[in-house]
Amino acid sequence: QVQLVESGGGLVQAGGSLRLSCAASGRIFGTYAMGWVRQAPGKEREFVAALSGSGASVAYTDSVKGRFTISRDNAKNTVNLQRNSLKPEDTAVYYCAAEPVGKMTGARWGSWGQGTQVTVSS
Q: What is the pLDDT of residues 33-49, one digit of tens each?
């Protein structure tokens, strides 16, 4: 199993930017897909973005395309989620995830971080 630690959440105004980072350990970095899943109050977990182990495949949910960018830093064993043009509806707890169960565009993953709160004020 992969151990994941997120950082970078907080409060931001609508239209602003925020970057989330996730540090991974426990397995050789680059041998598994990683992604971000969010959960808004009263809603189920939702896939946001994912990156294959090689980095060759990237996927985003439609609502964040053009605003969010997922990337990986192999030297630091981290995956980042740069989020621009943030909207109030982006408010959620964001979870870093690794080792997808099934498709990497789903919300089922084998390893999870602790989650970080992101609040976008209008």
A: 999 999 999 999 999 99
